[in-house]
Design brief:
The structure is a single chain. By secondary structure, the protein is mostly beta strands. It is 11% helix and 53% strand. It has helices at 2-14, 16-21, 32-42, 95-101; strands at residues 25-27, 53-57, 60-65, 70-75, 78-83, 92-93, 106-108, 135-142, 147-155, 159-161, 164-178, 184-197, 200-214, 220-231, 241-253, 260-280, 283-294, 297-304, 310-316, 322-327, 332-333, 336-337. The strands form 3 sheets. Strands 8-9-11-12-13-14-15-16-17-18-19-20 form a 12-stranded antiparallel barrel. Strands 2-3-4-5-6 form a 5-stranded antiparallel sheet. It is globular. The two termini are 37 Å apart.
Length: 338
């Protein structure tokens, strides 16, 4: 047992420079769970099977073994290890060593640094997510686990909304829970269509209807975008931006109270930063990075290439507090795990 510990420690301390020099070698996204199983079976003294606790810390999706003080993590397509005894608590890049010991877990790929990625934004648009009959569920959690956010959606047949006919109706149930606070639940119907352009798809968003379940049960809010919002995210080139000037006509109906109407004007700027590797509790993905600003508020989101999964959302919680939400492995499209 001691020899296996020394062997692993030698690997951890001996390959850090080599791993940095071979940064193009990364853990294959589909092999994350296999890597965990391999580590636990090959080095059970360091990574006791069944004794790990999963979590997120900043960009790291990790598994921590409290009985031995060791942890391994995935971030930005790399395999990382930290140990209180073996690496003096330092994070060590073991990507190259992993690939040398078990080549089946790895692949050679070129991952550009954040913000310098290439690849069309249209790569991250999945038309299935707007196809009649499609169902999906997105489950997110905050990095500290204090916030749980879920949305379960279904694409219905052609519908009419605000004088528009033949538009796509997405029906979603939204639930937000925060530690120490009552849950917030609502049902949302969104109305949009797709315009195909040479640069990529553009979403025409007409508006939505929100039905509140908790806490203001029975409240109905209708939002009409005038003019229609042209969402150009998936037609942008790398580092290209556009500004969306929204005018929303809002009608709120609360049981027992007079109907309230208002007009909200808002400008948001969206920028596409290219594609990069990102790791979340559900796995490692190539994703399109989008940034958007609304006055002083800044947010970002990562959408998976091919599947269109909303992997990570960063911003604030509405009260000015920063928050990052990561998609969980319980999410699915048409019943198929992500």
């Amino acid at each position: 047992m001691r020899s296996s510990i020394r062997r692993f420690a030698a690997l951890a301390l001996g390959v850090s420079v080599a791993a940095t020099a071979q940064a193009q070698l990364s853990v294959r996204p589909s092999s994350r769970d296999a890597a965990r199983q391999w580590l636990e079976s090959s080095f059970p003294a360091l990574f006791p099977p069944g004794a790990g606790q999963d979590g997120m810390a900043g960009p790291y999706a990790y598994r921590f073994y409290p009985s031995v003080g060791n942890a391994f993590a995935f971030s930005d397509g790399k395999f990382l290890v930290a140990s209180q005894t073996q690496t003096a608590g330092q994070i060590v890049d073991l990507t190259a060593a992993m690939c040398q010991l078990n080549a089946a877990l790895c692949e050679t790929t070129s991952v550009p640094p954040p913000g310098t990625g290439t690849g069309a934004a249209s790569d991250c648009f999945n038309p299935v997510l707007l196809q009649q009959g499609t169902t999906y569920r997105w489950d997110w959690q905050s990095s500290d686990g204090a916030v749980q956010f879920s949305t379960e959606g279904r694409i219905n047949g052609p519908a009419s909304f605000a004088g528009q006919t033949g538009v796509i109706e997405t029906e979603r149930t939204v639930s937000v829970g925060r530690a120490g606070a009552p849950p917030f639940t609502s049902r949302v119907r969104e109305y949009e269509s797709v315009e195909n352009t040479p640069q990529g798809p553009v979403l025409l968003r007409y508006g939505s209807i929100v039905l509140m379940d908790v806490p203001l049960a029975g409240t109905r809010t209708t939002i009409v975008n005038t003019p229609v919002n042209r969402i150009r995210d998936f037609s942008l080139a790398v580092n290209e931006s556009y500004t969306l000037n929204e005018v929303r006509q809002t009608t709120m109906e609360i049981p027992g109270l007079p109907t309230q109407t208002s007009t909200v004007r808002e400008a948001q700027t969206f920028t596409y930063r290219g594609q990069e590797s990102i790791t979340v509790p559900a796995g490692t993905y190539t994703a399109c990075k989008f940034e958007w600003t609304n006055g002083a508020r800044q947010s970002a989101g990562w959408t998976a290439k091919g599947s269109g999964l909303p992997l990570v959302i960063t911003g604030d919680d509405g009260a000015g507090n920063p928050i990052t939400l990561y998609i969980k492995s319980s999410s699915h499209i048409n019943g198929q795990p992500i």
